[in-house]
Amino acid sequence: MNKHVAARPRDGFTTGLGVIFATLGSAIGLGNIWKFPSLTGLNGGAAFLILYLACTLLVGLPVMISELSLGRRARANAVTTFEKLAPRQPWWLIGAAGALAAFLILAFYTEVAAWVIAYIFKAAFGQLSSVDPQVTAAAFSGLISSPVQSLLWQWLVLAMIAAIIIAGVSKGIERMTKRLVPALFVLLLIVIVRSLTLPGASEGLVFLFRPDFSKVTWATVLVAMGLSFFKLSVGMGTMITYGSYFRADQNIPGTAARVMLGDVLVSILAGIAIFPAVFAFGFEPDAGPSLLFITIPAVFNAMPLGRVFMVLFFLLAAFAATGAMLSLLEVPVAYLTERLNWSRVKATVTTTLILAVFGAGAALSGSILANLKPFGMTLFDLYDFSSSNILLPLGGLFICLFVGWRWGLGEVRRVLSNDGRLRNERIVQLFFGVVKFLTPILVFIVLLNGLGVIKL
Length: 456
Ligand code: PFF
Prior knowledge:
The chain is mainly alpha-helical. The protein is about 75% helix and about 0% strand. It has 18 helices and no strands. It has helices spanning about 15-25, 30-40, 45-75, 80-85, 90-125, 135-145, 145-165, 170-195, 200-210, 220-230, 240-245, 250-280, 295-300, 305-340, 345-365, 380-405, 410-415, 425-450. α3 crosses α4 (about 80-85) and α7 (about 145-165) crosses α8. The structure holds 4-fluoro-L-phenylalanine.
């Protein structure tokens, strides 16, 4: 056991509010602003929203509570957590698979963040000023088809994230997210007021809130479930790592519920910021991933003061992406510092350099690697699909099995009630029933069916 004990005193979050902002900062991200609107647009609007909310409640939230509990109990990175809680058993593989997922996600996520940051500048300097989606599409393809631009912007993002991570958990992650998350809410509200006051905005609201289930298939259910994992940053050890930095008196179910609500709120607000404007100017909602980079700029250009709002919008997306990337990078960095006793600088720089290589696969998917298509997808899409729709659900499944079957009710009660100090027995019972039976069964069925192993 001794070799797992960190030689340095462990850093951690310092205040209850700091915990909330850091965890919410991890959950809120491009998932809300890029993935959620494009998937909702592609899959029929409100019907998808309902499916996603159900997955969040029945799958995402229980896995989040499980992960936070494991991390705070073991006070260690995602791999060591399992080695401590189940010595000499293969459960640590969950943590190892999580580290792989963190790399895959960061590889494409940093590229999308790179486009967002490039767009802040392009919008500010008037390079995106057209109401014609064909013109904005040309601007976007100019960006992604240039290997130099794609790589340089991605490296800038990596360097920025690495610098914050090197500053530490309390002085880097906590300090940064405490500023970014509130700023993001303010910016989002400003953009919403603009979008909702456009003539014809109501059609977008109808799209977002009136369900049409005709577009829902089993593949949609897998996508909604994958999104619920991705959104709450669960299934891969991020929340185990963050849980290990939680204070001993932090109410885990209460914190997880608040973070889930805050995150869902931002997704819906992002939908309200985007769809009314899309409909008001007669654009199509189902553009998919390019909605953010092709449709949205055209939409902004069609409104008065559009350029200002466009800059604010991409700034808010960059703020959102930052907290999420910090939590992703912290997974391998925590492992390397605790397990190999590396300094934070060495662990962060090494991880970032490896990421630059992995990430190039995603960054160059629009240019020199466009024809490299293992499993029929570009590397960018493959990283995204294999992490969200396979690795995260698999990780989540095993985390539930660990908590429900290996840990048992006694241990769960101890952690969730802070050793009996919180009176939350009903919540403990409810959570335990869900995590032991309901969540794993749901994930198992949706996963097998979505991957075509069984046919329902
Ligand atoms: N939750 C983030 C988002 O929705 O953008 C993405 C993410 C962060 C996924 C951290 C996974 C993770 F571990």
